[in-house]
Amino acid sequence: MLIYNIFSGHEDYRIAVLTLLAIVIVIFSSMILHELAHGLVALANGDYTAKMRGRLTLNPAKHIDVFGLIMMLLVGFGWAKPVPVDSRNFRNYKKGMITTSLAGVTVNFILALISLACIAIMTAIFKSSGIIVGGGGYIYLISPSAAVKYAYYFFYYLFAYGVLINMTLMLFNLIPVYPLDGFRVAETLLPPDNAYVRFNYRYGNYTLIGLILLSVVIGYIGKAFNVELDIFSLFQKALVKLIDAVQMGVLG
Questions:
Q1: What are the C-alpha distances in Å from 9 to residues 12, 30, 40, 41, 77?
Q2: pTM, 2 dp
Q3: Rounded CA gap, 230 and 168, in Å?
Q4: Closest CA to 2 of 69, 80, 82
Q5: Domain count of the chain?
């Protein structure tokens, strides 16, 4: 579980608390901006539903789904309250549906790129200040004060999880299962009234919960045999390697 891994992975509880704070900030900002993007693009396509229902806001209470937030904190991926969209108001139905559906994941991708760039900038700043050096594939802090040390860890985890969480949200939401964004795209491109769409409207929520539970179970089975089987974990490990490569590239 994500929270357990945070506190079991740090001997210094202060770093664990800073890590959790960074994760919470990233989760709230990522989910809120994801849903806000849906509403704004729907508005641009002629649908005022989200605006009339007060969803074009940065207020977390309007967007955060409690169960989806808990799942994000426990297993590393979850969801927010879907922004209401009435496709009948779109000036161009297909264009409106596809652009609105992909708006959230596009924002998550952009936020991940910004976070990756911030990691490079942060590493360069700390390097130029003589606080960190790289060697042998590792990064070392050079006798910083406690405040500098904790500042480094906070911003590192803020930006690192900015990459991990946003990219995981993007991948998760592209799954073509109701009510995720990937399903909306598939529904728009598929012929009307087909069996796949009907099945998803009836059983999609159960299918999604089943996929999440299956992912968790597969992850535990893999750990028992020292094999990584969970696609989300594999995806996140690849992202961690990318983050490390960016830092080492800056450190030379």
A1: 9, 24, 39, 40, 19
A2: 0.90
A3: 13
A4: 69
A5: 1
pLDDT tens-place string over residues 66-121: 888 887 777 666 678 889 999 999 999 999 999 999 999 999 999 999 999 999 99
Helix pair angle (146-173, 13-44), 10° resolution: 40
Catalytic one of 11, 35, 187, 228 = 35
Does the annotation mark 35 as catalytic? yes
CA distance linking residue 19 with residue 188, whole number of Å: 40
DSSP letter string, 145-183:
-HHHHHHHHHHHHHHHHHHHHHHHHHHHHTSSSTTSHHH
Nearest residue to 31 (alpha-carbon basis) of 6, 63, 62? 63
CA-wise closest residue to 208 among 65, 30, 83:
65
Contacting residues for 30 by C-beta, under 8 A, at least 6 apart: 108, 111, 162, 165, 166, 169
**Run of H or E residues at 138:** strand 138-141
Other CB atoms within 10 A of residue 140 CB: 12
Q: Is the dihedral of CA 74, 161, 240, 100 positive or negative?
A: positive
Tokens representing residue 70 in the block: 């808990």
Report the C-alpha gap between 11 and 125 in whole angstroms. 26
Domain residues for 220? 2-251
